[in-house]
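Dear U.,

Please find below the material for section 3 of the report. The protein was modelled together with glutathione; I have listed the sequence and SMILES used, followed by the predicted complex structure.
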Amino acid sequence: MSKIILYGSDISYFTGKMENYFRVCGISYEFRNMQFPAFKKEMEKKVGLMQMPAVVLEDGRWMTDTTKMIQWFEKETDKFKVLPKDPVQAFFCFLLEDWADEWWWRTAMHYRWHYAEGVRFASRHLATNNLKNIRLPKFFKMKYMQYRQRSGYTTGDGIRSSNVEAVESDFIKLLKNLENIFKSRNFIFGERPTLADIGFSGPFFRHFALDPVPLKIIKQNYPNVLNWVLNLWNTRLSANGGRLVEGVPTDLEPLLQDIGNIYLPYLNANVDAVSAGKKRFDVNVGGIDFKGARYSKYRVWCLKELRNHFINLPIDSRNRSEKLLKKTGCWNVLWKEKNLPLTEKQEEGLPFQANNKMVGVNEAI
Ligand SMILES: N[C@@H](CCC(=O)N[C@@H](CS)C(=O)NCC(=O)O)C(=O)O
């Protein structure tokens, strides 16, 4: 019998997010390592670009983009769902997922590619598992991976020795806020996983709770966060398992405040950069002074998606959500940019056809 195939790497952020989703919902799949360079050409032909992961459905259709793939599976399959029925909770799940995908990515890449322990582990793993068809000595492949990932995603995306401390304190603050939540319940919205947990499995499962430096910090001081990562991987949704709390618990507010103070202002600076055609921009958010961050057309679309999720809420849920967005400083920044520089039909083909990578690492800068 044919099965869904998940192509990626078993240390990749978004491959891990998709695997957590499939497992929690009981969707069976077969994992395969993407093999370069052949896979790049094939994926570009099928969905328009190369990124991890790719999903191939039983009927042979190819998909990309975990956010839109998950939305597709939630709608099209009769499996258990991770999106809460309460529209307010669902809206805040989308917001937390987006933050997990688009903000914590840079921090996760920093911990992996800045420290020698992370570089050794990840470059060897990728060279061995995903670049094995390239006939070069492993040493070169490892060096190439280090160069590619740093110049694409860390030093090449605004991280400098001058802001490393601020980037790392931002991470410690996240750990403290999550530890506080997981002291009192197993998952973000209660006793079963929702889309918010799946979103956070991206940075945590295959980066922070795997790479040597952040894992040590988590083990030492944030045991409930580590339990949550393992629980999530091992939990299967069932008809009667696990209740959700009512509404949005107050211990999620510190997370929302950081979204309002740091993430949404960053998204707005990205909008300004894309509008001005500036492929690099400087931005100071939450005490982190990024120099030469890469603009991302994809993240302009992410902001539009967040706004659409809000606009599509039933009126009473919209009022409740607006109140909380205002209380946590997210409201004004969500709507600040009047014109979003989107291209015609941008990302409308997702999850089957993509227009833009999250960060344009291969674009000439
Ligand atoms: N928004 C996409 C992002 C996928 C993504 O950026 N994946 C990373 C690896 S975890 C990647 O393939 N980046 C492209 C590259 O490095 O060229 C998703 O949700 O699937």
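For the text of the report, you could mention the following: Residues 253-276 form the longest helix (24 residues).

Regards,
Y.
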